[in-house]
Amino acid sequence: MPRSAGTLLVLLALLVLWQGLHLLVGASSLASPLQTVTKLAALLATGEFWLNISETMRAFVAAFAISLFGGIALGIVLGVRKLAGNVAEPILTTLYSIPKVVLYPLVLLCFGLGISAKIAFGVMHGLIPITLFSMNAIRQMKPVYRRTSQVMRLSPSQNAFTVIMPAILPEIISGVRLGFSLTLLGVLIGEMFASQRGLGFLLTGAINLGQIDTIMAIALLLTVFAVTCNALMMRFDRRLTHR
Amino acid sequence: EEISVTQWGASLYGAPYAVAMEKGLFKQAGIDITGIIGSGGGGTTVRNILASATPYGEVAVSAALAAKAQGLDLIIVNTGTRSVAEASMVVMPNSELKGVEDLAGKKVAITSPKSVSEMLLLMVLREKGVDQSKVQRVAAGGYVPALTMLEQNAVVGSVLIEPLSIIRKDKYRTLYKAGDILKPMTTSVGITTRKFAQENPEKLKAIIAGRRAGVQAIYKDPAETAKIIEKLYKLDAPIAKEAVDNMIPPKMWSEGEFNVEELNRMVEGLKLIGEVKSDVDWSTVLDKTYLPADLQAKQ
Amino acid sequence: MTAASGAKVVPLAPHAAAQPHARLRGVTRVFDLPKSTLHALGPVDLDLAKGEFFSVVGPSGCGKSTLLDILAGLSAPQSGTAEFEGKPIQGVPDGVGVVFQEDASFPWLNVRDNVAFGLRRAGVDPAEIARRVDYAVGFMGLKDFAASYPAQLSGGMRQRVCIARTLVMQPRLILLDEPFGALDQQTRLLMGDELLRLWRETSATILLITHALDEAAMLSDRVGVMSTRPGTFIDFVETGWEKDRDSRVVSTPHFGDITARLWEKLRIEALKIMSAGKG
Amino acid sequence: MTAASGAKVVPLAPHAAAQPHARLRGVTRVFDLPKSTLHALGPVDLDLAKGEFFSVVGPSGCGKSTLLDILAGLSAPQSGTAEFEGKPIQGVPDGVGVVFQEDASFPWLNVRDNVAFGLRRAGVDPAEIARRVDYAVGFMGLKDFAASYPAQLSGGMRQRVCIARTLVMQPRLILLDEPFGALDQQTRLLMGDELLRLWRETSATILLITHALDEAAMLSDRVGVMSTRPGTFIDFVETGWEKDRDSRVVSTPHFGDITARLWEKLRIEALKIMSAGKG
Amino acid sequence: MSEKLLRVIIVVAMILLVEALCRFGIIPRMVMIAPSDMVVELGKILASGQFSADIRITFTNIAISTVLSVLLGFAAGVVIYSLPSLRNAIEPLLASYYAVPTFVFYPIFITLFGVGSASIIAIAVLLAVVSMVTATLNGLDRIPRVLRKTGQIYRMSRVKTALLIELPAATPYLFTGVKLSVAYSFIGVIASEFILSGAGVGYAIAYAYNLFENGHMYALMLLVLIVVTIVNTFLNVIDRRLQARRQR
Ligand SMILES: Nc1ncnc2c1ncn2[C@@H]1O[C@H](COP(=O)(O)OP(=O)(O)OP(=O)(O)O)[C@@H](O)[C@H]1O
Ligand SMILES: Nc1ncnc2c1ncn2[C@@H]1O[C@H](COP(=O)(O)OP(=O)(O)OP(=O)(O)O)[C@@H](O)[C@H]1O
Ligand SMILES: [Mg+2]
Ligand SMILES: [Mg+2]
């Protein structure tokens, strides 16, 4: 697997760069890879930290589930209803490029504090990309597939589950991958404001106290988590679609 | 039930609640407080309070007044902290600056415009007779970035606050402690909605009484307090100890009684940064009826 | 060379007299565009005899695929009547198989599953599915690729997958829309031979749309030449080949005659467009 | 019908005897793949007489475009020699024009600017550019589209833009790689006539790669048939058409003879692959 | 055209609905002020110039960050494109990039770039640059090989080929990257200000939120919304111009 070997090399180079930067700017601004990993291990050894992780996870899983199912459903509706899709698309792309953080006060005011605001904020980030990708997946599905299922006289449900779903899956997965990352980001930002638990809360605390090793450890954890999930989804995609 | 406390976990405002919770003092007073909702402070805390099932919380005076000014139906039912002893100004160890007077004509870092850090700086300058327009204030966005600016010589001094100042005390020299220069003033107050107060006077009284018991416990046994803080705030033992010890002499935590003089001192400060435009008519804001009877009498 | 001896060129279809397998009368199709309408096809009269191999040639955009859609029941004619096995075509009739112009293989299924797709949906017994799929995969020369996915195959092989997928349903009328468009001449020739073999074995009626005149000339019993849009049949050319023919007919003089006749028809049609304004 | 009377089919190229315009001797080309090498072409010997219209037919992937690249100086042969006008080909020689297999029109330039592109790069005087571009645009029937962008044209028209862009450079050797691949038979026929007219007017040497045997038979003086990869010439077929021919030759019996011969060659080649393993 | 009309109708209807909800007190004034009030407030703060320093800082930072991400992303894209083995190694990482919470690197940036605009710009660039890299790679990939060959036929130099053929051929794809860079620069700058900084529109919104100045807060939100919409519409117009020549 020379491909992943190359990726490993790049990761190694990043590590070296990280260490170099650490030496350059000093330990108070950037913890070294070793310090970070040690700190992460220490954090992971406390039950407290796992509580925070599970808090973040709860919000994230809920937000992601809503983005996922809501986004796909909405995307499919907009993809099938051409007019609705054409009308909605520019609105959605504009909403997508709004810095959603400016709406955070509004979210707090509407949802109160606690998990629902975090979930809402995660959904605001993740829903639109998944919707847009799903909509385009339907729109760009080769018309010949529809004709084929007609010629084979498939029932509507056969058509939906054995033709349309598998045909649009790859696009949907791309959307879901982006939606995944952005939902996570949204939940974290949400936690950085008003909460008493969660990784975002820990991050705020660490930033306020200048605990750089904690910051880096959480960032590392999040990065590893997100990159792993992403890689798994890509793997799943390749497995399933053979393209 | 959960209540909100500003800067929970980051500053010692919350110590009485921590102690009261740990030692079961709230339960003794007749209420079961299970958790504290923390936040970045200011209006966020006020909003958290409003959104809570038990809308009581301790917030900065400025936030309470701002919320009131915007027409929120709030009342102040007790006071929280009454000292600025945790705030200081640091310089690099090799700095030539000796005192507040030397700041004239120099650049110093504050967290953000109109923040408490700026207010305290301005109050100190006024106290020491330094023209505030001669000191250039740079907003860093937070205490840690402010220290970074200091280290990079972008400024000569930086505001700082405990426990950060204790954690990093070896790296800087303290130019002044705000608590040494400024007279005591009310820095945080307990607020609630008028509606909640009318419907649940007993609960409210229990919270205030529980907190008061917490404050008394702190002064009685600082060592134990430090242990509790260490645990709940996840601080190192010596730092927690020093942080608590520093706050004992200036009597940081009030038992809840209102002191108009100290309240007005804070308003003077808020006027300096322009957050409050005129004197505050406390009678419309304060409600003493939920304080323990002995404290109601104190002025 | 067994084929083509004594074959004649007969201008109009004698099959039309018998009870036709499929029958179009005065069929037209008009598309509604955003601001106008487009008369795409017709009026077309066509009779396909049972077991006939019929090819359609005509310029691009003349309505060949539209014609196929109507026969497949995928779209209804604007006017006129379309019948299959004596019944009017409404929706896709049973017994009709279609190989589309575009690659319609499902990229998420391997070759075997692609071929078995229709049978599974129709609820055919698994043992029977296996039998039929094996046969079709072998027949189309895909045995070594049964477990491959379409992305790993060339365009020509993918088209074969689609043909096999249609075949296993054992349609009585097979409609093929330029199935060899992506192939080079050599492979076309080989595929043509296989198509002929298939046709003989199943005795299905075949309608083949192609733009290659020589392909039409070599494979069909009868070639219909269409005009430019709105497409109508301007000529029917009987090839007179024996049923037992194969690609060797290309080296007979009669093959040259047929292609020459087809070319001449097309050239006249082309010159008409020319004089009407440059295409 | 003036053409094709008394034309004969001559197996090998007599032009080769004269001083050839372009000349290949023992030319091969091998590509380095990540894990192996691919022998794509040759050895090929070829002489193009000055003013000859030569066509190449052969199966897909046999190396036709590779051959063209070598003549155009876009890639160097692995072994053997390539000459143009008596000089070895090193880099793109002056006087050679190429129309590629793929659409090479520049989508960001309108038709006029596309056609003028090469002349501008060569620093030709603006008045002269205008004159030549006008002529070529008119010649290719693009006058009404001079200000249009390629995306607004059909595939065939875009290919004409590329031909015009090549023409204005007045090349002495024109290499055309399946220029009519995207067109239907009718339009091909018309384009073929235009190509013949162009060839007569400029008296350039033309090498045309095509997969349509009838196109090769109709247009060329001589057709080279290539084997499968690695491509070598397995036959040269002389058509014997007069220089003054046009598409009417398709309805002569001789046209049928030539196509039949080309088909037969290809069929034998195809059967060889068949027996070697299914393609 | 009718689609456009429908869209305008829908947007206007939604605004009117919110307006009505606010006016009738179904949405309390403390939660949200009516859209018409937002406009009035926006007019006021623009007239008073109270936030003009913040607005200037923010939009300058966004502009700088966009330009930097576009240039850096393009350059990096070209380099990665020309080194296929590096590219193979990097591509799986690029695909996961947006999963990294960029803003936690702020403490490092303030050490490297100091407190203030430079660090904020650095975060925004970090966020925005990758879409430009991806778009550049995509654009370079999609230059048909035959266009480069055509350049050779006209015996053009490498530089001329790059300028006259490769660049125009890749432009529509590059522009997609530019669009994304703008969007992410907006998000990066304003989010950083909101969370981390002491100046700028993002900070002003957070500050207004803290002090219950709903008027200022919603006026500033509206400002951001309007600017994003205008910039987006403008970019889309250019994009459609570029695409129109390419598509039927
Ligand atoms: N769904 C549709 N809506 C509008 N116009 C259509 C539609 N389908 C086909 N057309 C138009 O009808 C005409 C005939 O189309 P059709 O696909 O039948 O041509 P064709 O003969 O199959 O062409 P080709 O040889 O290129 O496949 C074309 O002009 C086409 O643009
Ligand atoms: N740059 C290259 N690198 C590696 N292999 C190549 C390259 N160019 C062509 N080939 C291979 O060389 C063989 C001949 O290619 P070429 O394009 O010359 O064929 P062709 O006869 O023009 O085919 P077609 O009729 O499909 O255009 C093919 O197998 C092709 O895959
Ligand atoms: Mg068609
Ligand atoms: Mg080729």
Helices and strands in order, then pairings?
The complex is a heteropentamer, with 1 copy of chain A (243 residues), 1 copy of chain B (299 residues), 2 copies of chain C (279 residues) and 1 copy of chain E (248 residues).
Chain B: E1 2-5, H1 15-22, H2 25-29, E2 35-37, H3 43-51, E3 56-60, H4 61-69, E4 74-79, E5 87-91, E6 107-110, H5 116-127, E7 136-139, H6 143-151, E8 157-161, H7 164-167, E9 173-177, H8 178-181, E10 188-193, H9 194-199, H10 201-220, H11 222-233, H12 237-247, H13 260-272, H14 293-297
Parallel strand pairs in B: 1-2, 1-3, 6-7, 6-8
Antiparallel strand pairs in B: 3-10, 4-10, 5-8, 5-9
Helix pairs in contact in B: 1-10, 1-11, 10-11, 11-12
Chain C: E1 22-32, E2 37-48, E3 53-57, H1 64-71, E4 79-84, E5 87-88, E6 96-99, H2 111-121, H3 126-139, H4 155-167, E7 173-177, H5 185-202, E8 205-209, H6 213-219, E9 222-226, E10 233-238, H7 253-276
Parallel strand pairs in C: 3-8, 3-9, 6-7, 7-8
Antiparallel strand pairs in C: 1-2, 1-4, 4-5, 9-10
Chain E: H1 2-23, H2 35-48, H3 52-82, H4 84-95, H5 106-113, H6 117-141, H7 145-153, H8 158-196, H9 201-210, H10 214-244
Helix pairs in contact in E: 2-10, 3-6, 3-8, 3-9, 5-6, 6-8, 7-8, 8-9, 8-10, 9-10
One adenosine-5'-triphosphate is lined by residues 31, 38, 40, 60-66, 101, 229 of chain C.
Largest sheet of chain C: 6 strands, mixed
- Unreliable spans of chain A are none
The end-to-end span of chain A amounts to 19 Å
Approximate helicity band of chain A: over 70%
Give the helix/strand class of chain C: alpha/beta
Structural notes for this entry:
- The complex is a heteropentamer, with one copy of chain A (243 residues), one copy of chain B (299 residues), two copies of chain C (279 residues) and one copy of chain E (248 residues).
- By secondary structure, chain B is α/β, with parallel strands linked by helices.
- Chain B is built from 14 helices and ten strands.
- The model of chain B has no long low-confidence stretch (mean pLDDT 82).
- By secondary structure, chain C is of the alpha/beta class.
- Chain E contains ten helices and no strands.
- Chain E starts with a helix and ends with a helix.
- The mean pLDDT of chain E is 85.
- Chains in contact: A-B, A-C, A-E, B-E, C-D, D-E.
- Chains A and E meet through helix 1, helix 4, helix 5, helix 8 and helix 10 of A and helix 1, helix 4, helix 5, helix 8 and helix 9 of E.
- The structure holds adenosine-5'-triphosphate (2 copies) and magnesium ion (2 copies).
- One magnesium ion binds next to helix 1 of chain C.
